[in-house]
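Team,

Forwarding the record for the chain on the shared tracking sheet. I've put the sequence and predicted structure together so nobody has to dig through attachments.
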Amino acid sequence: MTIFSRIIAGEIPCYKVAENDEFFAFLDINPVNWGHTLVVPKREEDYIFSLSDEELSRMMIFAKRVAKALKDTIDCRKVGVAVIGLEVPHAHIHLVPMQTEGDMNFSHKISDPDPERMKAIAKAASEAFKA
């Protein structure tokens, strides 16, 4: 069971942003920018391009809704998208609110992100997602 599956199952706490029957979105605990969110399928699959075309399409549509909620919540020009997928063997999409392309630099993380700020971002994004 991957760490993401354990988060989805509620075994590990997270800052949940959104979920449906197939997908789950939560704030990255090592964000490159405030609001950095991971979108994952609830079904474990290591490689995003191993998902069926239909499942990948639904995942991207879900991610689009999450990105809109983030943009409505965080002051940003756009929400960037990245698929890296080497650090956890569970397909995932990174959504990163950004002002500049430099905000997508994954080698620069926010050190020791404030839990209260993370909680507030997740709550606001979750409410925007439901609207």
